[in-house]
Hints:
Oligomer: single chain
Helix content: under 10%
Number of helices: 1
Shape: elongated
Amino acid sequence: TVDGLRVRHDLPDTWDGYRVRRQFRGAEYDITVRRAASHEQPGCLVDNVRWEGDVLPLAPAQSVQRVEILITRTSAQSVWDAETQTRHT
Length: 89
């Protein structure tokens, strides 16, 4: 989007997680999606700072932005989906 990189994801029930690197507007996004451990709160962290919403902020050109998306163990839905009551397919 004009505002940033939209992240939509799905995690098969048999997977614990995955990692992808994406170039977007001159920056690199290092994205990890994984199931949260029992002591972790589901959600999204951008460079270790909690982020709300499914559009990641634009990173400066030539930078690397680290994104970690934690989803619940009982469902492949993220906290974003739970808050908006929608499921991305």
